[in-house]
């Protein structure tokens, strides 16, 4: 009875067609149906039915699993595959080819054949070799090295604030987001194949731009912000005063970049008089500011794919997203725990 129930479960849940067909054959045989009836229903030969039943009697449920053969042996050995991947990771110029700056599968194939690396290979085979080795086409990115002589000290100070928030206050990441133009913004949406959503291609700047000054509270994970016409030290100082009023009696540790309004004497004097510490990022290291990831999500979910015609309309969309996000906010912990920055003893001057 237990075997029967297990066979029934397999016939309901099996995704492999071979396993499913064998389970049905065994189930029908167990129900007393003749081989002839099984072959008629399943459209298989009598020999197949008998082989499945005998195998199940001998090996049990293991007989239901297909035993795939290994297929044809590889014609391109491991050494040649490694060579192909090495060439694919280099630039054509490294091989004296100046007519183009990057490989396509067709150009790579032609180069391999010309050099005699392989006697014959198809583009599909090349694609599979590169995929199996974890080599893929990726967009080129840029790297801007920090010129800050105190980079490591500042980085470790910020990481320590993230890892061990002081008990006497709050760690808050602040920055500006913008400029907020009124313009059609490309984005992504689910649409019928071949029928993308269309936005206008031209626009004007009659209404100017606005700026969002934002603060991410790591204790709650919530974002607090105003949107203003300017982003001078006056507007920034208004944001800090609002944060001070929100958490009276707690010391504020304000992580920020080196934007000139952040370093204005009025801002420094206010911080000294209001129990707030200005924690500046190393130069060209905005990636250390946790609010940057929030800005990326804001741009993706609230602005991309939109074409707002007024600032009130756009600001309302931003406000709706922030309300939705803050309602689901969680404390911010575990920043870049597996990143190489955790083991740096000196600053790499260029990208790896």
UniProtKB/TrEMBL annotation:
InterPro entries: Homeodomain-like_sf, RNaseH-like_sf, RNaseH_sf, Tc1-like_DDE_dom, Transpos_IS630-like. Residues 170-310 form the Tc1-like transposase DDE domain. Gene3D superfamilies: Ribonuclease H-like superfamily/Ribonuclease H (3.30.420.10). It comes from Saccharothrix hoggarensis. This is IS630 family transposase.
